[in-house]
Every structure is written in structure tokens, then in C-alpha cells.
Amino acid sequence: MSRLRIAEIFGPTIQGEGALIGEPTVFVRTGGCDYRCSWCDSLHAVDPAHRHLWQAMTTDAVWAEITRLSRGRPLTVSLSGGNPAIQDFTALIALGQAQGYRFACETQGSIAKPWFAQLDTLVLSPKPPSSGESVDWPAFDACLSAAKGAAQIVMKIVIFDETDYAWARAATDRYPALPLYLQPGNPEVDPATPVNPQDLSDRLLWLVDKTMADGWFAPRILPQLHVLLWGNKRGV
Amino acid sequence: MSRLRIAEIFGPTIQGEGALIGEPTVFVRTGGCDYRCSWCDSLHAVDPAHRHLWQAMTTDAVWAEITRLSRGRPLTVSLSGGNPAIQDFTALIALGQAQGYRFACETQGSIAKPWFAQLDTLVLSPKPPSSGESVDWPAFDACLSAAKGAAQIVMKIVIFDETDYAWARAATDRYPALPLYLQPGNPEVDPATPVNPQDLSDRLLWLVDKTMADGWFAPRILPQLHVLLWGNKRGV
Q1: Tally of domains within chain A
Q2: Across the interface, do B22 and A211 touch by the CB < 8 Å criterion?
Q3: Which CATH number fits the domain that encloses residue A64?
């Protein structure tokens, strides 16, 4: 049986961002990523330097940990990373949904997987120019096609600056039917460095003011609530 | 033509709480309320002492102000108060929806109105014991019946303490099909007094910890984001 490479499993806690903000969630963070965003806040699940900390787990072992943390009470499981689309979650999702659990997945949209169609929520987060990555739009569209059947598909874009903002407006014009979430970037991602709540608020206010002034009312605009609450602490 | 009593119309800004958190919104805050919650954060729209500041506006005048603020670009209009269910929004909702606007309404659920069925989102916020009010459940159920046809109906409960929490668990057991949002209370509602962000964070963390520890995964738990961002400032 193939193994899943898992950086951490934690929760339950509330989802801190995007479409499911506030939702009680157990997070399954996979190890490994095909991107290396300049401002990545999860390098411990991305940089192969941390690979020795990623566990090779069977689907059954991952499921056992989810049920232990949630005490067998159904909730939302978020597959994140890293890029969880590198791996095969077909069996885990089927196992959990049979018990009433719901599954969300957060991925940049660079790799399409058939199990996207099983999801309750697929969050596609194409990365803006500030990331240093560039989006492969045919691959992104393949993710959308693969996800047909998923209960909910949304788009989330992190905005650091004017360039990201202009890019997001143009990029999302092509997907008017996808609910869109904008999120101000967090430039301070070192777990050892305290975040500056005022700076995070100021970034959100800048984004709200700019979007409202432009009369761009399509996106919902949300902070990373967990960073406001817990800073960059892991496991919450 | 009957007039609407309006305390303020402002926006667009993002919705700060509940099911539509982050959503670009114009707020229509009505004057007048059948409740007097001990911790009311909108007394300027509730206390008849402020009645001279409420404008008697025609539906057309309210609609003109909404389109002016939104520059004719469709967004969500939130009917709040006070208790907006005292008044008749049938015509305003029809007018706006014909132009692609969406309508949400936030009410305690004490007065049912036929126009609830026209809404895109009805937020029913029964008041917990700390409010000093008590819920008339048959009236609440009448609101639910009136709202049949609304695109989305959700429940939101403010939690100040253990008593409110226990009350919320019992009250919501009767409505398993209604999406539920819990929100920590804000004890400091004087616009002239700065809020304490640490206190607000602590209240949210207390509520998250308690709910997770109890394995109560039904509610989503969200702060009043606008209070975190802007304090008790009005018009944002």
C-alpha cells in the first residue's frame, strides 16, 4: 500500500482563512511541494531540508490520527501542504466521508487529481507575482475540470502589493463563476519572530480600501485570522 | 407611500461578522428595536433618545443612496438595526434584486415578515441570557416559516460567558439544519472608548478552546472583524 508523506496532523482548531473561516477543522499537512513561494509560511512542509521530519503514513494511520484528534466526531478535514495534490487521497476521503467527515483541500492548482471530484471544498490558490512563481493556466484549468463533482470550488489569492492586485483582477476575470477570496500577505513567516498585529491590520485595511475604491465587489476579503490570534505558532 | 425609518446608510465596506464575513456590503441600519440588549452596540439605532436622528425615507430615497454609494455596481445590501423586521422592505428588495443586488437581513427573530422569503441571506440572532432579553421561540419559528424561499438562512449567537454558551448549545440543538455561527461578545461598546484588541482576541480564544474541548464542531466561530480593525467607530 502506498504511503502518504505527512508533515503534521493537528487540530481540531478553527480554519483561519478563506471560504471556511471559523470552521472547526483537523489539518493534514502533507510534505512536499512543486512550488517555492518567496513568502511561503509552511517551509517545514515544503523544503526538502525538513524531509526527515515528514512521516510516511498509511491511509489507515492518517485516518486513525484524525479520528483520535476529533474523538470520532465528524468535522472538516483540511488537506494542505506543501501541495497535497502531489499525493493520493482517494482512499482517505472515501473512508472519512463514509463516517460523515467533510474534506477540503487547498492547492495552488498546478497538479490535477481525480480525487478533487470527491471533495466538499476545493480551494485553488494561484500564486501572484510576489511569490516568484508563475501560474500554469492550462494546469489550473485541468484542476477545475478534475474537480467537477466537488460540492464547492473557490479561488483564493494572496495580495502583497499593487502588482499582485492588478494581476488578481486580470486573472480572476476569466473565472467569474468561481467565488473569490482575497487575503493580504503576511511578510513575517518565521515562527520565532512575533508578528506585528498592527501591520497585519494595516495590510487588510489597505486591501479593503483599495478594492472598495475600485468598486470591485466580487471578492470577499479576509485576513489570516489564525495569524492575528496566534502569530506564526505551529499546530493551531 | 410609507416611509422607512433609517438610522444610517454606509459603505461599501466588508461585512465584519457571521456567514458573510469579508463580503463587500452597503449597510442600511434601521431605527427602532423591540429589544434592549444590555450590551447593544447600536444604541444609536435602538434608543428612542436618538429618534430625532433617524430619517424618514421613501424606498426610492433609500435605493438612491445605495446606488450612489455602490456607484450602481451590484453588491450585498445588509438590512440591520435596530430590528429591521419592524419595517417593510418588500419594495426595496424587489427593486435592488432586479438590478442584481443581493439582500441580507440581520434580526433577532422576534418579528416575522413576508419579505424574509425574498432575501438572499437571513441571519437570525436569538439573544442569549447575558442580553437581559428572552427569546420568544414561537415567534422565532414564525420567522423561519416566513423565510421559506430565502436562499440561505443561518443562526448567529453572541457568547459572553458560560451561561450563554450552555444556552446556545441547548437552543441550537432544536435547529440542526441551520448553519450556526458563534461570536464572542464585545463588552466595550462606547464609540468614544478604544477597544482592547487583546481582550477581544482572548474572548475568541476562550470560545474556540471551549468549543473544541467539548467536541462541539457544528458552529463556525468568528470574531467581529470590524471591531478588531476599526474599534467601535461608526460608518465602517
Answers
A1: 1
A2: no
A3: 3.20.20.70
d(CA A6, CA B131): 46
B211 touches chain A (CB under 8 A): yes
Q: Does some domain include residue A236?
A: no
Q: Per the structure block, which three cell numbers stand in for A25?
A: 477543522
- The distance of B121 to chain A (nearest Cα, Å) reads 16
Q: Contact A22/B220, CB-based, under 8 Å?
A: yes
Residue B65 domain-assigned (yes or no): yes
Sheet holding B220-221, edge to edge: B55-57, B4-14, B24-30, B76-80, B102-107, B121-124, B152-159, B180-184, B220-221
Asked if A223 is an interface residue toward chain B (Cβ–Cβ < 8 A), one would say: yes
* pTM exceeds 0.90: yes
Q: How far apart are CA B28 and CA B30, in angstroms?
A: 6
B45-86 pLDDT tens trace:
999 999 999 999 999 999 999 999 999 999 999 999 999 999
In DSSP terms, B25 is beta-bridged to B13, B76
Q: Which pairs from B168-171 meet CB under 8 Å and 24+ separation?
A: B168/B128, B168/B219, B169/B216, B171/B126, B171/B135
The model's pLDDT over A182-208, given as tens digits with 9 standing for 90+, comes to: 999 988 877 777 888 888 889 999 999
8 Å CB contact of A220 and B73? no
The pLDDT-based confidence of B174 (bands split at 50, 70, 90) is very high
Please list every residue in chain A whose beta carbon sits closer than 8 Å to the beta carbon of residue B12: 212, 217
Distance CA B92, CA A180 (A): 27
**Which of B20, B204, B217 is facing A75, going by the closest CB pair?**
B217
Residues 150-179 of A with CB under 8 A from B: none
Residue B63 belongs to domain spanning? 4-230
Q: Between residues 3 and 22 of chain A, which touch chain B (CB distance below 8 Å)?
A: 11-14, 20-22
From A11, A204, A211, residue closest to B229, measured CB to CB: A204
**Arithmetic mean of pLDDT, B26-36:** 97
- Minimal C-alpha gap between A49 and chain B (Å): 33
Q: Is residue A78 part of a domain?
A: yes
Give the model confidence (pLDDT) of A15-60 as tens digits.
Answer: 999 999 999 999 999 999 999 999 998 999 999 999 999 999 999 9
B235 within some domain: no
> Quick one: pLDDT at residue A1?
59
